[in-house]
Each structure stands twice: as structure tokens, then as C-alpha cells.
Amino acid sequence: MEITDQDPYREIVRFLSTQHGAAEQVFRTLSYFAGMNFAARAHTRALYSVALMDAVCPPSTVFAAYDHWARPKEIQVNPWNNHEGGSATQVGVQLRALRELS
């Protein structure tokens, strides 16, 4: 919420603006859903995609999860894309990664 004012983060701000005193509980609950917190427990390889113009999933949050991933990983960086990411190009990357698994 300090990085972007886009939904879904803006929804949390709207909630907290009417629920004074609930911030600690809200952020404690949200910490259970942060991808970075699960990354260190990984048991398989991962293919990440990040769009550097994405205001919904800011790149720093994607890189945080990627950096904490405990197994082999790959990241596709899309410097000019927003939340749509690599779109059709990403499908090709995903298919290649799946072929490599078999």
C-alpha cells in the first residue's frame, strides 16, 4: 500500500479508513497471503513473470518472492508491460518450461 494506490491495495485503505484500530490485525492476516513468505518452502522449480510497469503487482514484490524461492527458478522480465505481463509471449515461455519438465 506504500508502493501503489491501485486495487486491491486501495481496498485495504478504504477499509482501514472506517475501521480505526484494525491495522495491526489486518496486516497480520495479510502476511499469511504474501507470496514471499511461501517462497522459502518451495519444493519445485518455478517460472516467474514480472512486468516492470505493473501497478497492481509492483515489480519489487515479484522480485522479493523470486529472490526467496528455495528451488531452481527462472524469471521472464517484461520491461514495457503493465499487469497483462508478457501476454501471448509468456504462453510460449510457459509451454517451453513445461516441455523441459517432461
Would you give an account of this structure?
This protein has 102 residues and is mainly alpha-helical. The chain has two domains: 1-33, no CATH class; 36-101, no CATH class. It has five helices and two strands, in the order αααβαβα. It has helices spanning 9-18, 23-31, 35-39, 59-68, 87-101, and strands at residues 46-51, 73-78. Strands 1-2 form a two-stranded parallel sheet. β1, α4 and β2 form a beta-alpha-beta unit. 7% of the residues are buried. The mean pLDDT is 91.
Task: Write a concise keyword list for the protein shown above.
single chain, 102 residues, mainly alpha, two-stranded parallel ribbon, 2 strands, 48% helix, 12% strand
- Give the SSE string: HHHEHEH
Gyration radius, to the nearest Å?
16 Å
Helical proportion, percent range: 40-55%
What's the rounded overall pLDDT mean? 91
Low-confidence sequence ranges: none
Strand content: 5-15%
Structure class: mainly alpha
Compute the separation of the termini in Å: 40 Å
Question: Main β-sheet: number of strands, strand sense, barrel status?
Answer: 2 strands, parallel
> How many strands appear in the DSSP assignment?
2
Q: How many domains?
A: 2
